[in-house]
Amino acid sequence: MHRVRLNYVLGGSAGTAPIRNPLLDLLQAVREQGSISAAARTLGLSYRHVWGELKRWESELGQPLILWEKGQAARLSEFGAKLLWAERQAQARLLPQIEALRADLERAFAVAFDDSAHVLTFYASHDEALAALREHARSERLHLDIRFTGSVDAIRALNEGRCTMAGFHTRLAPAPDSLSRRTYKPLLRPGQHKLIGFARRTQGLIVAPGNPLGLHSLADLAVREARFINRVRGTGTRVLLDELLAEAGIDPAVVPGYGREEPSHAAIAQAVASGDADAGLGIEASARARGLGFVPLAEENYYLACLKSSLDQPATRALLALLATPAWQRRLAALPGYAPMSSGAVLSMSRVLPWWRFARRGAA
Fold first, then answer.
1. How does DSSP assign 284-323, residue by residue?
2. CB–CB of 18/106 below 8 Å?
3. pLDDT in tens, 252-282
4. Model's pTM, two decimal places?
5. Is 81 exposed, middle or buried (0-12, 13-18, 19+ CB in 10 A)?
6. What is the rounded distance in angstroms from the CA atom of residue 316 to the CA atom of residue 301?
7. CB 79 within 8 A of CB 63
């Protein structure tokens, strides 16, 4: 069984068929012209090239394509004729889907040729507001290419040049000796990185509707023997949980289900909604979207980090301008558990993350 691979070409004329195949173009020309030389002239190719391609395809497919009888016009073999028939059948049957695919490709690539459009690559901690921003930005010709990952992995991706923006979050006033400091400080450098204000959000326990187990704190998880479900290592929410547990003097080992992990807030909420877990730490928006209960535990700031050198790029400037608009800030405030937080402002890292001390004033 020979596999079919699809290719497309940018630019040029559309041609007479929605999908073109070089071999089938050769066979069609031979059938219409009756000779290799005439087919070559029709296609604007040399006789040697056409001859060589036909022989190569015969070897590749293991079947004769042309009947080579001396003194007679070149004719397609039965196999060659069946190939052309199969192609016409496929073109006729799949024409609507092919045209839709071509239109989608043209729309996608139109962005690359539109000087007024911008594309910005993100690695970011999972966040409902950032997903909403991606949709909102599209109408402003700003396309956010977002890959949701853990906060730690997002900043590493920024440092390794795999993205322009990294999204991560910390508590409103992270302590100088906190787990957040030990996690993020080695990854961020004042003077090299810049922070952009994005949103304030609430994290807490996502629980079943009505909170039937009466969970009001992390300590209640062990007391009520609630089945907990955790976020994976490297996520900002996992850092937050471990920080809160340490501050409360709670050994993670006493939390039932601490070792069970899910990759996103949405997955945590789904696990609770399906009855697979009694509680998980996540954002309020994910809980409300599924009609679940929510017990707030911590407020945090969600930042966008970038390299200082990227602030002058047109795509970054477009993002900062969009974040500052009243339309976006109204949409952000409408999400459960969210509020604008210096949206679009370039912030002093040493002021919002109190992990650095400088001998001279004004360093940031």
1. HHHHHHTT-EEEEEEEEEEEEEEEGGGTTSHHHHHHHHHH
2. no
3. 999 999 999 999 999 999 999 999 999 999 9
4. 0.76
5. middle
6. 20
7. yes
